[in-house]
Amino acid sequence: MPSTTAAVNSAVPSLPPSPPPRSRLSLYLDLIRWNRPAGWLVLVWPTLAALWVAADGFPGWHLLLVFLLGTPLMRSAGCCINDIADRDFDKHVKRTTQRPITSGQVSVKEAVVVGVVLALVSLGLVLSTRWEAVAWSVPAVLFTILYPFTKRFFSMPQAFLGIAFNFGIVIAFAAIQGMVPATGWVLWLANMFLVLAYDTEYAMVDRDDDLKIGMKTSAITLGRWDVTAIMAFFALSWLLTLWALLPYALGWPFALGMACAAAQIVWHFTLIRERSRDGCFVAFSKSHWIGASLFAGVALGFALK
């Protein structure tokens, strides 16, 4: 006859096993958004396009590797800075409550070390180019550090983010030409509007939570004009890119790239017009394909000239 204890134990449903503790490497990769490449791809494509334009074609393997590695590394360092600055706010936002620092799995000191190491490696890559590129990397780092704090007082922090994100374009021209010509600044402005568009889409995902905690974003500032403004930002980015690159006569590849970018912009409207969280997040997460289309058109256009 079974004992009473055994009978009771058999009646109690067994609890699911607790998940195994995560390794430090896994947590650090989560900290720098390794599993979400959209955040650094939106930086890589415009930077590579600027690199091709500055070099009038393929820039060489050295510079290509410098920017292919340096851009994601610096963005990853920026993620560390952002999560340190926002660790108390992220507790109140549905999408960010489980970030490593906010959830207490990674300490602030650890995140600082990871961010500094990544920034130093990125700086080391830039040091292998011209001194003008190194000089431009200094304000790039400063703006990256300052950006998270602008969300406390600046009504359009996405514009500040655009400045930080756009330094890749400036550094690319400086690394090749030792200067930033007018074309470089027009591309810089075009990408500024692109950042405003896709990061406002991103801000729309968290708008309800941001309103509760007093965070400032372009989605809140623009209010009911958010969708209209996003489409205007996309249009201005597209037109400025066309204006900057039309004189290079890149032929049908560039025209096809611009057409693909325009089609995606229309698709973005269908995703965000209802302002649903899921639609806005999909729009942001796929926004890097706009830059990919433009870069493909630029690179192939130069290759076939």
SSE blueprint:
Blueprint: H1 4-11, H2 24-31, H3 38-55, H4 61-85, H5 108-126, H6 131-150, H7 157-165, H8 167-177, H9 182-205, H10 207-213, H11 218-222, H12 226-245, H13 251-272, H14 277-285, H15 288-303
Helix pairs in contact: 3-4, 3-8, 3-9, 3-15, 4-5, 4-6, 6-7, 6-8, 7-9, 8-9, 9-12, 9-14, 12-13, 13-14, 13-15
Description:
The chain is built from 15 helices and no strands. It is globular and about 55 Å long. The protein is mainly α and 305 residues long.
Structural class computed from helices and strand pairing? mainly alpha
**Distance between termini?**
89 Å
What's the overall average pLDDT, rounded? Answer: 89
Helix amount, in percent? over 70%
Order of helices and strands: HHHHHHHHHHHHHHH
Uncertain parts? 1-19
By DSSP (H or I, 4+ residues per run), the number of helices equals 15
Content of β-strand: under 5%
Task: Give me the count of strands.
Answer: 0
Rg, Å, rounded: 22 Å
Major sheet summary line: none
The dominant shape is globular
